[in-house]
Amino acid sequence: MNTIIEQEARYCAHNYHPLPVVLVKGEGVYLWDEQGNRYLDMMSAYSAVSHGHCHPRLVQALTQQAGRLAIVSRAFHTDQLAPLLQKVCEMTGQGMALPMNTGAEAVETALKAARKWAYTVKGVAANQAEIIVCDGNFHGRTISIVAFSSEPQYRDGFGPFPAGFSSIPFGDSDALAAAITPNTAAFLVEPIQGEGGIIMPPPGYLKRCEQICRDNNVLLICDEIQTGLGRTGALLASDHDGVRPDGVILGKALGGGLLPVSMFLARRDVMEVFTPGDHGSTFGGNPLAAAVALEALKVLDEEQLVQASARMGDYFLARLAALNSPFIKEIRGKGLLIGVEFHADKVTARTVCEQLMVRGVLSKETHETVVRFAPPLLIQQAEIDTVVDALAALLAELR
Ligand code: PXG
Fold first, then answer.
1. Given this model, what pLDDT does residue 398 score?
2. Quick check: is 138 catalytic?
3. Annotated catalytic, 170?
4. Domains of the chain, CATH where assigned
5. Which of 293, 313, 324, 363 is a Cys-bridge partner for 335, taking CB atoms 3.0 to 4.6 Å apart?
6. pLDDT tens digits, 96-150
7. Is 46 touching ligand 1 by the criterion CB < 6 Å?
8. What pTM value is reported for the model?
9. How many CB atoms lie within 10 A of CB 388?
10. Which contiguous run of DSSP H or E holds residue 145?
């Protein structure tokens, strides 16, 4: 056994089951292990590394800002936060933003905003606000977020849970219309369910949900932590449907693959429910994170990563479809958020990931049957060829 892996098993909580590889270096779409073996990264840290590993401009922004001013808390202003928030609001068409660090914190922020908006603007009676979510959702790991997870393992052993959430089938806009009550504050939804298995809703779903929310004075809040910032070939996945959500949650790639940076963005009248002391975070909006996130947004623009994601995603999907393998049940995705579902009785997704690793490709299964392909957005055609060829070779061997 590798001693580093043993040491981690001894001292780290066993809340993950990593592939047996010890990574020491990353650059662009590539990762290297201790022995100097090179891998193509098809995971991008669950879509957090859309800019590629250690992007030189982002490393420079990080090191420069780290040497000037890193953390002061929001007790004071810094010169870095406002330019970031203006840029991200202008890019997404939202009015105001509240910066946090991890995705789950930004989701919690959205839930708090929605509830307070329901009480102070919509007129819902105290403690009666309801939030509708979707079966198969993944929004993070806090107690209130797992309270509305439909995955037993995320909940088991962690109750009691807060009330005020109801869940409907994903992709069913009629179910949303039926679930709304006068107490409904918000509908929280992932435009494409990522951790749920790269689940695509039917065409026009989000647009219909937007209309239903408007008609009922319910906030449409899109969790774009995984789908946002170019991952699906549009800046936001909700752009594909021409939808302007009332609130948007960003994280992961916002930190440029270097730092945890997240935020809740919303219409001005929604965000204005927060007053000083209501909500906060020691590290949220710190100038180090803000400098990196602003540079990450500029790189996204200047290197046209959103367009690249659309182009390379189409190519990747076409090459996968051409595999025509009896092991593959379905190929799903948009842009560079792709899931390949295998027939459960033929091969497990874990086995595919282990075999891909041996062939120099790193990915991770979600559930037992789906392997995700979500590389950094700067991946080139030849690299996609390498991945698809590796998959084809291992499927041929399995046969
Ligand atoms: N929303 C979505 C759509 C996500 O994919 C989160 C929220 C939570 O973000 P943070 O930064 O709090 O992890 C995610 C995270 C895991 C895991 O093991 C998490 C994600 C994907 C795969 C595994 O917790 N996505």
1. 87
2. yes
3. no
4. 3-55+305-398 (3.90.1150.10), 56-302 (3.40.640.10)
5. 313
6. 999 999 999 999 999 999 999 999 999 999 999 999 999 999 999 999 999 999 9
7. yes
8. 0.98
9. 19
10. helix 143-147
